[in-house]
Design brief:
- InterPro entries: DHS-like_NAD/FAD-binding_dom (IPR029035), NADH_DH_b (IPR012136), PNTB-like (IPR034300).
- It is a multi-pass membrane protein.
- Its EC number is 7.1.1.1.
- This protein has three domains: about 80 residues; about 200 residues, no CATH class; about 170 residues, 3-Layer(aba) Sandwich (Rossmann fold), CATH 3.40.50.
- The protein is built from 17 helices and six strands.
- Helix 1 packs parallel to helix 9 and helix 4 packs parallel to helix 8.
- About 50% of the residues are buried.
- It is of the alpha/beta class.
- The N and C termini lie far apart (about 70 Å).
- It has a six-stranded parallel β-sheet.
- Strand 4, helix 16 and strand 5 form a beta-alpha-beta unit.
């Protein structure tokens, strides 16, 4: 039976990795998810075989049924616009589960003590690490969910100069509680209170770390919390001697860490700076600060259609506005009309456009936009200068030239899409409100920019109808 469990785990790990490879492109992503799901099913079966106690089987199966009942409906019916917060919530549930597993292992072991049994060091360290990181991930993810769902304000909520000392005290308190537990404060049931203190301090730390982080940094935060959840799961697997948890946790932790680093570089911000918080407004339009009144040029669907119909190349820059309006299918139809007229259409994808990693890629893949037409920032930036028209659909901060030109801007130094270098720019927006970072965008007032106000889906549809009549 032990050999069977080992074989099933190995097959499951191979399917995890193979499924992850499928996520590198929209065409193979669904199949990759399905393969990884089958791998997880095998891992669960292997665990049931390893448990062997039918009483525990009943509890495990009951947990699976409850989990499926609670997890499937939101996964199936949540709109793509709300997918970032769903990802944040599901990730938080994973971290909270790991923290509860660590607590249950602590209770089952009647407390931890290195002094009583030095051979249990891996179990103790793994469990306490999982408890701290899992609790941070759970409560931090709830705050990320609240900000993305706009239950909480997207702007930073901070204690000012006291924020970092406060966070440091919480971390020191959680680690100190873990040290006291590990050194054997188990006599008289005292260690139970130390364990509760550890979970509470780590939970408050999760809240305190994410609350000061603004909406503009939220995609990176989601990725970072996902990595933390993976690491905590791997640590719990070490404590439980469960190979499946170790491998799956390390895959999630490693991939999440790599993605977090890549996204931080794409914003030209260090991960410590992001965790320090204080940046990212949440949609409140801020004054430019120079006292100069600016005007914008409005355009109509008919004029926009004429501009694009006689262009050689059009670049579409999707942003969260496209997601809110669910305009991706309309954009695909418009692009097909342009391509029939001989216009080359490409899509410029910024790494942090939207509210989660790959948000725009997922939306456009849903509309069956060719993957070859999706161009990453580094590949497309050199083409804006020879582009006749760039169509910006609800993308604010990732097209803001202040990041390149204004040293006083909070986003100065962040790599952006060089939209302002195009011969003409059409921006689709509902209003002149700023983006999620709360920073005014000079692009909107440029001489080469025209604004097409209204719902993005309706505006794109109107442009498509005008194209049909040309």
């Amino acid at each position: 039976m032990d050999n069977l469990v080992t074989v099933l785990y190995i097959i499951a790990f191979a399917m995890f990795i193979y499924g992850l490879m499928g996520l590198t492109g929209p065409k193979t992503a669904v199949r990759g998810n399905q393969i990884a799901a089958v791998g997880m099913a095998l891992a669960v079966i292997a665990t049931l075989i390893a448990v062997r106690d039918t009483t525990n089987w009943i509890l495990i199966v009951a947990g699976l049924v409850v989990g499926v009942a609670l997890g499937v409906p939101p996964a199936r019916f949540t709109k793509m616009t709300a997918m970032p917060q769903l990802v944040a919530f599901f990730n938080g549930v994973g971290g909270g589960t790991v923290a509860l597993i660590a607590w249950a292992e602590f209770i089952n072991s009647s407390g931890f003590s290195v002094l009583h049994d030095p051979l249990t060091i891996p179990v103790i360290v793994g469990s306490l690490f999982a408890a701290i990181i899992g609790s941070i991930s759970f409560w931090g993810s709830l705050i990320a969910f609240g900000k993305l769902q706009e239950i909480l304000p997207g702007s930073p909520i901070t204690l000012g100069r006291l924020q970092q000392p406060f966070n440091a005290l919480l971390l020191i308190g959680a680690v100190a509680s873990a040290v006291v537990i590990g050194l054997g404060a188990s006599d008289g049931g005292v260690s139970q209170w130390w364990m509760i203190a550890l979970l509470v301090l780590a939970g408050v730390l999760g809240l305190a770390v994410v609350l000061p982080i603004g909406g503009a940094d939220m995609p990176v935060v989601i990725s970072l919390l996902n990595a933390l959840t993976g690491l905590s799961a791997a640590a719990a697997g070490l404590a439980l001697n469960n190979t499946a948890m170790i491998v799956a946790g390390m895959i999630v932790g490693a991939s999440g860490s790599i993605l977090t680093n890549l996204m931080a570089k794409a914003m030209n911000r260090s991960i410590p700076a992001i965790v320090a918080g204080g940046f990212g407004g949440g949609g409140v339009a801020l004054a430019s600060g120079d006292g100069v009144e600016r005007t914008v040029k409005s355009t109509s669907p008919a004029d926009a259609a004429i501009m694009m119909a006689y262009a050689n190349q059009v670049i579409v820059v999707p942003g969260y506005g496209m997601a809110v309006a669910q305009a991706q299918h309309a954009v695909k139809e418009m692009a097909e009309m342009l391509e029939k007229r001989g216009v080359e259409v490409k899509y410029a994808i910024h790494p942090v456009a939207g509210r989660m990693p790959g948000h725009m890629n997922v939306l456009l893949a849903e509309a069956e936009v060719s993957y070859d037409a999706l161009k990453e920032m580094d590949d497309i930036n050199g083409e804006f200068q020879r582009t006749d028209v760039t169509l910006v659909i609800g993308a604010n901060d990732v097209t803001n030239p202040a990041a390149r030109n204004d040293p006083s801007s909070p986003i100065h130094g962040m790599p952006i899409l060089n939209v302002d270098q195009s011969k003409a720019v059409i921006v689709l927006k509902r209003s002149m409100n700023s983006g999620f970072a709360g920073i005014e965008n000079p692009l909107f007032y440029a001489d080469t920019t025209s604004m097409l106000f209204g719902d993005a889906k309706k505006s794109v549809g109107a442009v498509t109808e005008e194209l049909k009549s040309l």
